[in-house]
Write a structure and sequence with these properties.
The relative contact order is 0.12. Helix 3 packs antiparallel against helix 4 (about 85-95), helix 8 runs antiparallel to helix 10 and helix 11 crosses helix 13. The chain contains 14 helices and 15 strands. It is an alpha+beta fold.
């Protein structure tokens, strides 16, 4: 059955237009958590950089049992509107409805019940069907953005001149959309974070009320594995990642005691230590301070002594990943970040961002463009040519 589900998944994916919900970064080729985080940060930094006095409110939305609340008949209508074959839509409707469920404890079985809602747990199709089910959950105001990675949803409100009406209306529309589509908002786990660099002004933000309950405002939030702070510094995130990496160094030392070859030690380092230090690094490393970068580099030096081989500095890894990721985005016209890479008339270099603040200059997209213009890369060379 899993093989058949994978075949159907490929058929559905190939039938959906690339323009469908471009800000859903999950379950799509050439998309990752790194892209979602980079888009959130670039949208935020670009707005704050435009005009002094601008700020951004981020609402990190949490759903209760998102996959279990899908209504198959509503999904059927949405899939048909997206252009899927009517017979395939009918098969999916039949696949998701009329299922029986029992509970087993030892040799005892409960009475069976019929399930007509939700996507199956562990089903290959479930994540894709959920993303299509929420494809019409988009921003209704031009100043707002809704970024999704599966059921991790962020509402970005770009506030200018202290006018929060559009943002408040967006939150209201989201709550209404969830009610219409039978998705339950978990208000207690939904958090808001405000990025505001204004100085000398009284900061009085309107509280967010969803279903009669206030949303808590926090100074830091863990989004897709990255700790985002209200001041967009990365000390807290790097401290957490450094601690995790140092714990993994213990196992590296134990392997060395058993006289494991340097080649095997390097493989273990790459999979267990470097993967922690470089997780989503294109989103945050450029804006990290020198002190935090040195803390990360100390972990690498310790690993070098254990492995007895030279390991690449994080700065080199960051630069390489920036232009590798940029090259992949350039090859994908449907990627939301593709339009940010604009060739100059010479056809050999990309237009550099005009930025007022260092925060924007050192973020992913400006750094990626700078890396493309500075370093020759086989992927980008073939694209430009």
């Amino acid at each position: 059955m899993k093989v058949f589900e994978r075949l159907l998944k490929n058929i559905i994916s190939s039938s959906i237009p690339d323009t469908t919900d471009p800000l859903q970064f999950a379950y799509r080729s050439n998309r990752s958590t790194e892209d979602a985080i980079a888009h959130v940060l670039h949208t935020t930094l670009s707005h704050v950089d435009k005009k002094q006095g601008n700020y951004v409110r981020m609402l990190f939305v949490d759903y209760s049992s998102a996959f279990n609340t899908i209504v198959p008949c509503r999904l059927f209508t949405k899939l048909r509107d997206l252009g899927l074959n009517s017979r395939l839509c009918a098969w999916l409707l039949d696949f998701l409805t009329g299922r029986t469920q029992v509970v087993r404890v030892g040799r005892c079985f409960s009475n069976s019940i019929t399930i007509n809602t939700g996507a199956l747990q562990g089903c290959v199709l479930s994540p894709l069907l959920y993303s299509l089910y929420t494809s019409d959950c988009v921003a209704t105001h031009g100043s707002n953005t809704i970024v999704k990675f599966a059921d991790d949803t962020v509402v970005l409100g770009a506030i200018s001149n202290n006018d929060e009406a559009a943002y408040m209306d967006e939150v209201k529309n989201l709550a209404s959309w969830c009610q219409d589509n039978h998705l339950q908002l978990n208000v207690s786990k939904t958090k808001e974070l405000v990025v505001d660099f204004r100085r000398g002004q009284h900061r009085d933000y309107k509280p967010i009320i969803i279903n009669g309950a206030p949303v808590e405002r926090v100074q830091s939030f863990k989004y897709l594995g990255v700790h985002i702070s209200s001041d967009l510094t990365w000390a807290a995130h790097i401290q957490v990642q450094t601690k995790k990496a140092r714990q993994r160094l213990y196992h590296l030392r134990q392997l060395r005691k058993f006289r494991v070859s340097p080649k095997i030690l390097r493989i273990f380092y790459t999979g267990a230590v470097e993967s922690i230090l470089t997780q989503n690094m294109t989103s945050w490393f450029g804006n990290s301070c020198v002190k935090d970068q040195k803390a990360l580099q100390r972990v690498i030096r310790t690993a070098e002594r254990c492995c007895r081989i030279a390991l690449p500095p994080l700065q080199d890894t960051y630069t390489r990943r920036c232009w590798t990721r940029a090259a992949q985005i350039l090859k994908d016209p449907s990627h939301p970040g593709n339009k940010l890479f604009q060739l100059l008339q010479s056809g050999r270099r990309f237009r550099i961002f005009r930025a007022r603040t260092e925060r924007l200059k050192r973020s992913f997209y400006p750094q990626a463009i700078r890396a493309l213009n500075t370093h020759t890369h086989p992927l980008t060379s073939s694209i430009i040519d």
